[in-house]
Each structure stands twice: as structure tokens, then as C-alpha cells.
Design brief:
Elements: H1 5-11, H2 37-44, H3 59-72, E1 76-80, H4 83-94, E2 100-104, H5 109-118, E3 125-129, H6 137-140, E4 145-151, H7 163-172, E5 176-180, H8 185-188, E6 198-202, E7 216-220, H9 222-235, H10 241-252, H11 254-274, E8 278-282, H12 292-298, E9 305-310, H13 313-323, E10 328-329, E11 339-341, H14 353-358, E12 365-369, H15 375-387
Parallel strand pairs: 2-3, 2-4, 4-5, 5-6, 10-11
Antiparallel strand pairs: 1-7, 6-7, 8-9, 9-12, 11-12
Helix pairs in contact: 1-10, 3-10, 4-9, 13-15
Bound molecules: pyridoxal-5'-phosphate (PLP).
Pyridoxal-5'-phosphate (PLP) binds near residues 82, 84, 155 and 214.
Keywords: Amino-acid biosynthesis, Methionine biosynthesis, Pyridoxal phosphate, Transferase
EC number: 2.5.1.-
Protein name: O-succinylhomoserine sulfhydrylase
Length: about 400
């Protein structure tokens, strides 16, 4: 019998121990014991599916992965210590020296560093397309291209890419489509439904949802995950059982939390859109968003990130942050607490204006990760901070 998202989030559970616990316990163990020499031999020969060592698998990480696999409509998955470990290990496991990636230019900063600084060390090069130039993707494909990569919505400018269109291009050229689905979560968007081969999450964000633990996961086609698993089991980026236990509990409330985050976020976006000190607001489910129709097609709700530009450039952005009282100034997002950041004076300050504009980061752009506080309190804090600009 197949169940709905919320039911799976609560009911998927690792096998109970002899204590018949209702809630999955924490299996803090590095390794597992064998009955005898034959059991040990057969287990290592993979004639049996069982836990051997927690770098390979652990009941807590398995429970977490099983949930994400079902939520994303995938075949298999592997859990990592962080989102970046998931991104790196996915590329490292699937690519060889001389391979080529075609990627959206608007990717998370560390992913961009991976493309520009680290993968070239292994002779893996990347070509980029802008979020509004998906029509130019085909022209970037070379005989050695293996992967098309994108985030949607993007960090921090909340642009949307058409997943169905990217999947059609990938399929036509026999390439893998890999999507970082971190901003949407498996509740709001399932890229596999639109043709993606692999989906990556930083579980550090809305999946945890309370700013407590780091984590990452890659899910998708079983043959690809097998390669990623073998690479990871040897190189060691595994998620800790404790983090998997926390994250699996978090998934029980993902639908409820994300619904509320989105309800708050659209109200914040609507408030900002009317404010005279705001040049523009980018929120996927506002009609004014340039890719509103695409967002509606592929997302259940608009997510919890609102990007907006304050009039007055860098100085106004900094003043706004200084005047914030309730919300947090922090590098994270997807927390129960509302967080505001000013990318052009912080995370993206080392980029030239031209490079920043390529990824839609204007001088006065603020990223607001809308939390679970009472929405009027969030709006009042943003209002008083805007008044001081
Ligand atoms: C879109 C996106 N992908 C990946 C990551 C990396 O995740 P982590 O910090 O868990 O390594 C982040 C972190 O902010 C992100 O926003």
C-alpha cells in the first residue's frame, strides 16, 4: 500500500530492536558484530545486506536515506556529513579526468569554487549558462560533457530554472541531469518527476529546520548511487548516526514546517513589494517573479527564501542589517529563526560587480530566510529596519 508524503515521513522506520521501541533509537556504534567467520566472510562479500561499519551504513543513516528516497521518488541514496560533501562526492564518483560539466552560473559559492578551483586539478572543466539563458545550454555541450547541473530555486537570488527543459536537453544528448534541490526540499519539488537523474540536498537547511546539525544527501538512479556509495565508502564523507537521527526526526515535521515557512514567506514578500524603499522583490510565487509560471509548474509552494533589493546600494544594505532587531544575521538559512544576509558585502564581496550581476546579486540585494516566528513580528522588524535606511 503506498502512503502519502506526511505518512511516509512519520512511518518509514528502521527495523525495531529486541526492545520494540516506538521511536527509533540512536545507534551510536562505529561497527557491528558477526556471528562467526562465515557470517563475516559472507557479509564482506556482500552476499548479505547488513550493516558492517558506520562509514558504509548505519541504521540511523539508512532510515534517513530511505525517507528522502521515497519523498523524492528515487531508487536509492547515500547520506553525507554536509551538503558540500554530497556535491563533491557525486561529481568525484561519476566523473573521470577529461570530462566536462555544463552548469548554471547561479550555484552556491562553494559549488562554484569546486568547479573553478578543485575539479580542474583533475582536468574536469565546467561551462556556464545564465539562469535566463537555458536556450544556450545545448550550444555549451561538448563531446566530453557528462553532466548538466543546476540549482532551482537558486541561492541567493531565488531564480527558477525549468527542470523539464533541462531534462529534455540532458536526455537528447545522453547526459546526466543533477539538481541541487536544497531551497525547495522534497516537499515542494521533486526534480526526478521532471526527468532529473540525481537530486542533492544540503540537509543542513530546511530538512533539519532548526539550525542544529549539518548533513547532505544524494538520491536518484540505483546504478549511479552504487558508484557514489562505493566512492564514499572508501573516501569517508559519511553522515554521522547522530545527525541522521536528528534529521530523520526533522523529516517527521517537514511538511508542516515548510507549509508554515511558505505561508509566512509570501506575506513577507507581499509586504516588501509594497514598500517604497524596496526596488524589487524576488519570490517564486509572486506574479512579478520573472519565472513565476515555471515555479508554479514545478513547485508546490514558493519556499521560504525572499530576495529583495533595497534602494541605496551597498550602504543601504549594511544600514538595514545594522537596524535589524528580532531577525538574526547569520550565514545559515532554512532555520526556524528568520535570518537576513546581505550577499554583496559578505558572501559575495570578493566578486566584481560584473560577476555579481551575472548571478543576479545587485548591491542592495538582501536574502531573507523566513522563519516560523509570528509573521507580523517578522514584518514589523523588517519595517522598522527599512525605516532607518
Ligand atoms: C544551494 C546549496 N547547496 C549546497 C549547500 C552546502 O550545504 P552545506 O553547508 O550543508 O555543506 C548550500 C549551503 O548553504 C546551499 O545553499
Amino acid at each position: 500500500m503506498s502512503h502519502n508524503f506526511e505518512t511516509q515521513a512519520v512511518r518509514i522506520q528502521t527495523e525495531r530492536s529486541q526492545f520494540s521501541e516506538h521511536s527509533t533509537p540512536l545507534y551510536l556504534t562505529s561497527s557491528f558484530v558477526f556471528e562467526d567467520a562465515e557470517d563475516m566472510r559472507a557479509s564482506f562479500a556482500e552476499e548479505k545486506q547488513r550493516n558492517l561499519y558506520s562509514r558504509f551504513s548505519n541504521p540511523n543513516t539508512t532510515e534517513f536515506v530511505d525517507k528522502i528516497v521515497v519523498m523524492e521518488g528515487a531508487e536509492a541514496g547515500y547520506a553525507f556529513a554536509t551538503g558540500m560533501a554530497a556535491v563533491f562526492s557525486t561529481f568525484a564518483a561519476l566523473l573521470n579526468s577529461g570530462d566536462h560539466i555544463v552548469s548554471s552560473r547561479s550555484v552556491f559559492g562553494s559549488t562554484h569554487s569546486l568547479f573553478t578551483k578543485y575539479l580542474p586539478k583533475w582536468n574536469i572543466e565546467t561551462s556556464y549558462f545564465k539562469v535566463n539563458e537555458v536556450d544556450k545550454v545545448e550550444a555549451l555541450i561538448q563531446p566530453n560533457t557528462k553532466i548538466i547541473y543546476a540549482e532551482s530555486p537558486t541561492n541567493p537570488a531565488v531564480d527558477i530554472l525549468d527542470l523539464e527543459l533541462l531534462a529534455a536537453i540532458a536526455k537528447k544528448h545522453n547526459l546526466l541531469l543533477v539538481i541541487d534541490n536544497c531551497f525547495a526540499t522534497p516537499y515542494l519539488q521533486n526534480p526526478i518527476k521532471f526527468g532529473a537523474d540525481l537530486v542533492i540536498h544540503s540537509a543542513t537547511k530546511l530538512i533539519d529546520g532548526q539550525g542544529r546539525v549539518l548533513g547532505g544527501v544524494t538520491v536518484g538512479k540505483a546504478d549511479l548511487i552504487k558508484e557514489i556509495y562505493l566512492f564514499s565508502r572508501n573516501t569517508g564523507p559519511a553522515m554521522s548516526p547522530f545527525n541522521a537521527w536528528v534529521l530523520s526526526k526533522s523529516l517527521e515535521t517537514l511538511a508542516l514546517r515548510v507549509e508554515k515557512h511558505c505561508e509566512n514567506a509570501i506575506k513577507v514578500a507581499q509586504f516588501l513589494e509594497e514598500h517604497p524603499k524596496v526596488n524589487f522583490v524576488k519570490y517564486p510565487f509572486l506574479k512579478s517573479h520573472p519565472q513565476y509560471e515555471v515555479a508554479k509548474k514545478q513547485m508546490r509552494l514558493g519556499g521560504n527564501i525572499v530576495a529583495f533589493e533595497i534602494k541605496g546600494g551597498v550602504e543601504a544594505g549594511r544600514k538595514f542589517l545594522d537596524a535589524i532587531k528580532l531577525c538574526s544575521l547569520s550565514a545559515n538559512l532554512g532555520d526556524s529563526r528568520t535570518i537576513v544576509t546581505h550577499p554583496s558585502s559578505t558572501t559575495h564581496s570578493k566578486l566584481s560587480l560584473e560577476d555579481r550581476l551575472e548571478v543576479s546579486i545587485t548591491d542592495g540585494l538582501v536574502r531573507c530566510s523566513v522563519g516560523l516566528e509570528f509573521v507580523e513580528d517578522i514584518i514589523n522588524d523588517l519595517k522598522q529596519a527599512l525605516e532607518s535606511v
